[in-house]
## 1
Amino acid sequence: MSGRSDLDGSPLMQQVFSPRNPQIILSDDQDEQQGFMWLFAGAVMAIRNPKAHKITDVTDPQRTLEWLSFASVLHRVLDDIENLSNS
């Protein structure tokens, strides 16, 4: 959505969702924008990165569903703004 191929991971999230100069605006409120920035950056740092860089044995289906639900909520936030900008 941002068109930024020069960044990835947490630096990308902090840049595009920055509360002071966002490329992707999720809220008119700076605090809420910053909160979303940290949710997206945290998801990359704490959830995606460890599993992308080492083999992990996920044996708890409930936890898997919870992580998928969290990812789904983040994507829904992006879908909502994309739908607003296309209408």
Note: The longest helix spans residues 61-86.
## 2
Amino acid sequence: MPIKNRFAELHSDITAWRRDFHAHPELMFDTHRTAGIVAEKLRAFGCDEVVEGLGRTGVVGVIRGRATGSGKVVGLRADMDALPIEEATGLDYASENPGKMHACGHDGHTAMLLGAAQYLAETRNFDGTCVVIFQPAEEGGGGGRVMCEDGLMDRFGIQEVYGMHNWPGQPAGAFAIRPGPFFAAADLLDIRFTGRGGHAAKPHDTVDPVVMAAKAVSALQTIVSRNADPTHQVVVSITSVETSSKAFNVIPQEVHLKGTVRTLSEEMRDLAEARIHAICSGVADMFGGEAHVRYDRNYPVMVNHDAQTEFAAHVAASVAGDCTEAPLVMGGEDFAFMLEERPGAYILVGNGDTAAVHHPEYNFNDDIIPEGCSWWAEIAEQRMPIG
């Protein structure tokens, strides 16, 4: 089944929705405007039920098919939040909210799922129930986890769940997916080295936490090079270094490091956490200081389920003519929480030759709207066929 004609007809409307979302980005759970528009449109489409405030600002729409005898319930999820980035695209619909930008394409995901919801509510050409899920706070807030904790899966009887993300560098409208671990666990690292500050001309009277931090930043990379099995992916990144002093001639009392740890298995996650604690404690002991390490297990590994991945790839090929194998991604994705609750799959759709996500010049490619909408609609129709 190729791209649905209805989405060619709706393309300009969906593009307008997307560009409105783009001009008014909202962060984390503060997606009140976006969620309000989503709920208003779902009601206008004739959804059988629209629930607001799930997972604080999430929205859920329920669409029952022309038949419901199969008892099947399939969830389709899009994310709504933006990023704390100053936009540099120069677009006529660029962000009107300083320091906030839809730099990951969640404006496009939301608009495409709205388009699919309109079509599904119009046609209802499936035997079962489709639940469309609009989630806040994917960008670090764990909105997927919060919606699940709020009873998303049980309340709506969801049996399977599917998600999609645009992917710059992949041909526009082309799909890619992989079974098993797909996106990495993304854990947060907070380390404080404490010593004894003093005058820069008298380092012998101090216990220098800057030296401790410098040694630790280098030593932490040995987790990847010397502790982890080379065939297992691990990324340890220190992304911020701050000291308690801003002066040129003062050795500070404390140095604060922040970073992330990315892994694709619980075994590597456990190894990384243990080694970080050991390395930082050892470095502090060596120089006579103290290390305080906080390792926060944030997003888990996102694992696609085999049967649902095969089905999602089949649907993608029916829409676009092909579906290739996606690479492993060391970024995090909180759809992982939903895939821990229910079987399902997550797919990439090409955004074309655009700036990368999380870049101030990124923009979602409106040309891929018909493919994305068609995939979501076909997931419902093919998973819950009439007759």
Note: The first helix runs from residue 5 to 23.
